[in-house]
Amino acid sequence: MNRYLCFLLLYVCCIQLACAQATGISGHIYDQESGKPVSGVSISIKGSTRGTVSGPDGYFELRSSGAATLVISLVGYARLEKEVSSGEILKIYLQPAIEELNQVVISASRVEENIMRSPVSIEKMDARTIQQTPSANFYDGLVNMKSLDMVTSSLTYKQINTRGFNTTGNSRFLQLVDGVDNQPSGLGFAMGNLFGPHDIDVESAELIPGAASALYGPIAFNGMLNTSTKNPFEYQGLSAQTKFGMNHIGDGTDLGAKPLYDLAVRYAKAFNDRLAFKLNASYLKGTDWYANDYTDIDPNTPAAKRGPQNPGKNQLNIYGDEVAQTLPDIGRVARTGYEEKDLATYGVYSLKLNGALHYRITSKLELIYQGNYNQGTAQYTGSNRFVINDFKFVQQRLELTGSNFYLRAYTNHEYSTNSYNTRALGQQINRTWVKDLNGNTVAPEKADATWFERYAAAYKGIVTGVTPQDHNMARSFADQGRILPGSEAYDAARERLIRTRGLAGAGILSQCSLRHIEGMYDFSPVFKIINFQVGGNYRKYFLNTGGTLFDDKDKKLTNEEYGVFAQASRSFWKNHLKLTLSGRYDKNENFTGRFTPRASAVFSPSEDHHFRASYQTGFRNPTIGDQYIKLNVGPIIILGGAPVNSQGLNAYENSVTIASFSAFANAFGSDMQKGTPFPQAVANNKDKLVKSNVPYIKSEKVKSYEIGYKGLISKKVLFDVNYYFSRYTDFMINTVVARAKSNILLADGSVNPAAAAELLGADRQLFQLYTNAADKVSIQGVSAGITYSMPGNYKISSNATYIDFNIRNADPNNIPAFNTPNWKTNVVFGNSRLTDKLGFNVAWHWQSAFDWYGTFTEMLPGKVQAYNLVDAQVSYRIPSMKTIVKLGGSNIGNRYIVQAYGSPAVGGLYYISLNFDQLFR
C-alpha cells in the first residue's frame, strides 16, 4: 500500500479521534438459569458496525451517541434484541437454547441469514467450538464436520475437500480468510492453514460442501471454506497461547519422541469507537511425520515377485530407485535409492505475522487495511514428494465496508526460493559419484548408463573378484563410491542440488503473485419487496518461475479473469417460503465465458422445521500450471493447454496419438527385422498412424441437485439431513502425442510418408498435453447429523456421510481419482462447564477403506485402510488470570494411519496449552 496513503489515513484518523465524542452503554450479562456472568457474548448496535464482547465477569461497554437497538448473541443462548438509551447501565439475562438456532451465516448467500434457513448445506465452527476442540488446532478440528475429508501430507500441511475427487493439492476447493483467497498463485491451491490465521484470532469458519461457483466463481468447484478473524473493536486486549506437545511416540523408529512448540500472541486496541488495530504473531516448530513406507510398487515387476529381494524394486518412500532398466540376460534392475528421511527437511515450522487497522468513518462505514506475512516449511505429496521450504507468502488487503456494500482489494505474493523435489534430489545425488570400469567418476548425464554397465559386467562375471550371477554382489560393485547420508560429500551434494534449479537439480523457484479487486452492493433496502444483490471481481496473475516451470524466462507472463453475479430472493406466505435465484458469469482470457446459475427454495412450516431444495452448477478453470506449464524434461515436453502456450510448437495441430505411434513403430520394426527396406517398411505400416484430435483445455463442469431438512425436535434435538446428486463433465486430463515436422496428413487425408519417417527418427517430439475428456460420471451422497443438548450442560453430536461414485461408461484413465471413502462418521461428546472451572470434550472419527490413486505412484492404486481415532481434551479455567489450561491429544490411541498413499503415517500428538484471553482489556 502506498506510504502516502497510509500517512493520509492516519492523519484523518487522528482528526476524528480529536473530534469524536460519545456517551456509553454498559452493563453485565448473566445466564438466566444459573445467574452467573457470561463471557464472550457478542454485543453490537443494530444497523451499524459498532460492537464489543463481554469480559470474564460478563461486563461490557459500548459507545453510543443516542438511543440504539442492541443485538446480543452467543452460541448456546437465544439471540436477543434490546432497545436501550445512551448512558444506560444494563443487566441482561440470556436464555440457554440449542446453539444452532441462533447461528448466523454469511457464506451461503453472501448476506447474513439464520443457518436454519440457509438455501444450501452449510456447516459452521464458531469461536466457542474452536476453544473446545480437542484437536491440536481449529483447522484439524474441521474433520468433525459432516461431508469433509482431510488428508495429511505434513505436520504443517493438511488439505481438505468435500464431495469426492480428493487430492493432496486441491485446486477444486476455495479457501477464503476474511474474504481473501488463501492460495499462492503459483501453486494454484491453498496450503491448508500453513498460511492462515492462528486459533486465537479465528472467530468462525463456515463450510459449504459442493459447488459454490454461482456466487464465488471457478475455484469453488467442490465447495468452499470461509474463515473470519476477530474484529479488534469487538475482541480487545492481550491474548496469548503457549502450547507444548509431543509426537513420534512409539513410531517404530529409534529416533524417539519429538517436541512441538506453538506460541501465539494477539493484541487489539480500540482507542474509541472510530479507530482500532490488532497485531498477531505466532510461531510453531516441530518434527514432521516420517514417510517411511518401503513397499515395493514397481509396476514392471509381477506382484508375486516384488519385495526386498527384487533387484528392480521401486520402494514407495525411497527416491532414486525409480531409475531402472531391463538388462539383457539379467532382468529388471533398479538403482539404489535414498530414504526420504535423508533427503527431506523434517524440521518444520510456521511463522505468521499479521496486523490490521480498522477505521470507522461513520457508524455504518468501516475502512480496513490488513497485512499478512507468513513463512514456513511443509512436505507436499504431489507427482513427487516436495519440500515447501522456507516458503514466504505475503498478503495485503484494503477494504471499505458499509451496511449494505463492500469493496475489497488484495494482493498475494509467494516467494519460493528454497523449495525442492525430494525424488529429483535422490536421483541427482545418485548421478554425482558413479565411476566407470576404470575407476573414473563420470559426468552426471552418463551416470545412470554407466552404473547399469557396471552392474551388468559384475553380474556376468566380467569383473575380477566379484561372484557372478549374484545380484547383491553386482549391486555392491555398481555402488562403489556411493556417497552416504551424513557424510560431508553427501551434505555438500544435497545442498548444491537444492540450490540448482531445472532438470540438472532439485530446486524450485516461484515468485508468482496475483492482484484481485471485488465488490458487492445489496439493493434490498431500495427495493423493499425483494432482496437483491449484485457484485463482481477482477483478477490478474503475474507469473515468475525464471523459466524453470513456465515459459517465463526474460518475459512477462500474465493471466486475467473477471466475474459478475446477481442474486434475488423473496419470502412468501408470511415467511414460510423463501425462493432464491443466483447467477454468475465468469471469463478468463484463455477460455470462453461461463454462466453458472443456482436456484433454491426453503419451506418453513414452523420456526422449528425447514425443508430446502436447490439446483446448483459449478465449473473449474484450469489452474495457472494447467494453462502455462512448458517443461522440457528430455524425451517429452509437458505443455499446458492454453492456446497461447503452444504457439509455434504445432503439438495440438500436427501430431499422432501415442497408441497409434506405438503400433506403427512395432510393425515397422518387425518388417525391418524381416529385411524389408526402410521406405517400404514405412509405406507398409504408415496407415496405422492416427492423427490426434486433442482440443485445447477448457473448464470442468458440474450440475448438482440437492434436497435437505433441518429442524428442532422436542426443543432438544437438532436434526440435519441432505441428499445430493451431481453430474460431472469435461474433466481435465493429460494425453501424450508424437509430433512430426512435416504435415501428418496429405491433402487427400492419407498419412504422409515423410511425416511417418520423421516420427521414427530425431525429428520426433513427444508432448504431454493438457486437455479434457468427453466422459461423464456422477456421484450421489447422503449426510445426516444430530445434536442433543442434554441436562447439565452435556452435549452430544453425531454425523454420518455416505457417498457413491458412479463411473458409468467412462474410461477410468479420463477421470480424476475419486479418492474418497464411501462412509465416514463422527461423534463428539462434551461438557464445557462440567463445573465452574472444569470442562472436557471427546471426538471420535471413523472412515471406511478405499483405494488411493495419485500421480506420486503413477496412478497405480494404494490401499488407504479403514481407521478410527479419538481426540480428547480436558480444560481448567482460572478466571482471576483470564486463563484456560488445556490438556489434550489428537489420536490419543496413537494409531499410525495413512490418509493418502505415499504420504506419511500420522500418529498421536499430545499437548498442554495455556490460553490467556483478553488481558488488559
List keywords for this structure.
tonb box; 50 strands; globular; 12% helix; Immunoglobulin-like; 22-stranded antiparallel β-barrel; mainly beta; disordered N terminus; 921 residues; membrane; siderophore uptake transmembrane transporter activity; five-stranded mixed beta sheet
Description:
- There is one protein chain.
- The chain is mainly beta and 921 residues long.
- Among the domains are: 1-97, Immunoglobulin-like (Sandwich), CATH 2.60.40; 303-344 and 423-510, no CATH class; 626-697 and 734-772, no CATH class.
- It contains 13 helices and 50 strands.
- The strands form ten sheets. It has a 22-stranded antiparallel β-barrel. Strands 10-15-16-13-14 form a five-stranded mixed β-sheet. A five-stranded mixed β-sheet has the order 35-36-41-40-37.
- A hairpin with a 2-residue loop joins strand 11 and strand 12.
- The longest helix is centred in the N-terminal third of the chain and has 17 residues, at 3-19.
- It is globular and about 105 Å long.
Mean pLDDT: 92
Per DSSP, the total helix count is 13
Label the structural class: mainly beta
- What composes the largest sheet? 22 strands, antiparallel, barrel
Report low-confidence residues grouped into runs of 5 or more.
1-22
User: Which value, in Å, is the CA radius of gyration?
Assistant: 30 Å
Helix content: 10-25%
Strand content: 35-45%
Calculate the terminal CA-CA distance, rounded to whole Å: 30 Å
User: How many β-strand stretches?
Assistant: 50
Instruction: Give the overall form.
Output: globular
Domain TonB-dependent receptor-like beta-barrel: 376-891
Pfam families: CarbopepD_reg_2, Plug, TonB_dep_Rec_b-barrel
GO molecular function, one term: siderophore uptake transmembrane transporter activity
Domain TonB-dependent receptor plug: 116-223
